[in-house]
Amino acid sequence: MSACVPTHAPHSSPHRAESEHQPHSPPEGPRRFRVAGADVSASIAVFLIALPLSLGIALATGAPLQAGLVAAAVGGLVAGRLGGSPLQVSGPAAGLTVVTADLIHQYGWRTTCAITVLAGLSQLALAQLRVARSALAVSPAIVHGMLAGIGVTIAVAQLHIVLGGTPQSAVLDNVGALPAQLAHLHPAAVSMCALTLALLFAWPRLPGPVGRRLRSVPAALVAVAGATAAAVLAGLSLPKVELPSWRSHALAGLPEGPVLGLVAAVLTTTLVCSVQSLLGAVAMDKLAAGRTDVRRSDLDRELRGQGAANVVSGALGGLPIAGVAVRSTANVRAGAVSRNSTMLHGVWVVAAALFLVPALELIPLASLAALVMAVGLQMVSLHHIRTVTRHREVLVYTATTLGVVLLGVLEGVALGIAVAVGVALHRLTRTRITHEQKDGVHHVHVRGQLTFLAVPRLSRALHQVPQGAETVVELDGSFMDHAAYESLQDWQHAHLARGGSVEITGRAGTRIAEPAGTSAAGCRCRPWTAWRNHQCAAPAPTPTGSPAEEPAEGPSSHQLARGISAFQTNTAPLVRRELARLAREGQQPSQLFLTCADSRLVTSMITSSGPGDLFVVRNVGNLVPKPGEESADDSVAAAIEYAVEVLKVRSITVCGHSGCGAMQALLTTDARGSQTPLGRWLRHGLPSLERATDKNRPWARIAGREPADAVEQLCLTNVIQQLTHLRAHECVERALRGGTLELHGMYFHVGEAQAYLLTEDAPDSGVFDRVAGTTGEAGSKGTALHDTRV
Question: What 3-state DSSP class applies to 631?
Answer without folding.
Answer: coil
